[in-house]
Design goal:
Blueprint lengths: L2 E5 L2 E4 L4 E8 L5 E9 L6 E7 L4 E3 L7 E5 L5 E6 L8 E9 L6 E3 L3 E6 L1
Parallel strand pairs: 2-11
Antiparallel strand pairs: 1-3, 3-8, 4-5, 4-9, 5-6, 7-8, 9-10, 9-11
């Protein structure tokens, strides 16, 4: 059973930083694409950043220049370095991945809370 486990959320003051981590386990496949999404209370889930196995990266406009997504040396790990955090960055952050199987299966983590106080 494939699991994505996130860590690194917490409470931080505006202007501060947090680093989120996500590790996938239970699969023999490489995760072709790994991503971070977030959901604020009352809002739809939105894409924050994606990174492919080839290193192609995309960011939401609202986080560009402040957040950095990267893949770890350990297989199927991804990080999100978040700097200059603002209250509007508050939400539950979810790790997402698509594997390299013929089905291109998609997986989600359970989410980690990020709260930015003003």
């Amino acid at each position: 059973q494939v699991q994505l486990v996130e860590s690194g959320g917490g409470l931080v003051q505006a202007g501060g930083s947090l680093r989120l981590s996500c590790a996938a386990s239970g699969t023999i496949f490489d995760m072709n694409t790994m991503a971070w999404h977030r959901q604020a209370p009352g809002n739809a889930r939105e894409l924050v950043a994606t990174i492919t196995s080839g290193g192609r990266i995309n960011y939401a406009g609202s986080v560009k220049g402040r957040f950095t997504i990267s893949r770890g040396d350990v297989k199927n790990t991804v990080y999100l370095q978040m700097n200059s955090l603002q209250p509007e960055d508050t939400g539950v952050y979810y790790c997402n991945a698509r594997d390299g199987s013929t089905r291109n299966n998609e997986y989600w983590g359970q989410g980690t809370q990020v709260t930015v106080s003003s």
